[in-house]
Amino acid sequence: xxxxxxxxxxxxxxxxxxxxxxxxxxxxxxxxxxxxxxxxxxxxxxxxxxxxxxxxxxxxxxxxxxxxxxxxxxxxxxxxxxxxxxxxxxxxxxxxxxxxxxxxxxxxxxxxxxxxxxxxxxxxxxxxxxxxxxxxxxxxxxxxxxxxxxxxxxxxxxxxxxxxxxxxxxxxxxxxxxxxxxxx
Length: 184
Description:
- The protein is mainly α.
- It has helices at 3-78, 82-88, 92-99, 106-125, 157-162, 166-183; strands at 130-135, 138-143, 146-151.
């Protein structure tokens, strides 16, 4: 082989090597751009998750405050004072007729109304007895003589400390359902 052809082969080999290095550098640059775009998208998604989390927390706080306000309003509605009764009714007789109660004074009427509303409140919050019949993990609940199918759930000790009865568990689950429906 002549020196010239050997030199040409060496140059071609160097140019091929140079081209390969340029191709590798271009590929690395493209991969770097892809990684930057992917990182940017991940950070955007993380920001969106954070925003949704804050929105969900605010919704839960609003719902709890709304529930507490409703509960407070219910309690306030049932409290009767002499001043409130006098504002609502012109005479004691009119108030007694309205509530269908006998009372000798505004004070005794207010006391009777508050006593009856507190009894009503206790009877509304009093839990009803349930009887349970189990077969194969599924069960039937008897409540006030009516039988309905139900599911037995065993609570872990730490959960049972917070939810002492079925009513507490059901209220928590209903709250969770409401939160889930609002966020969808």
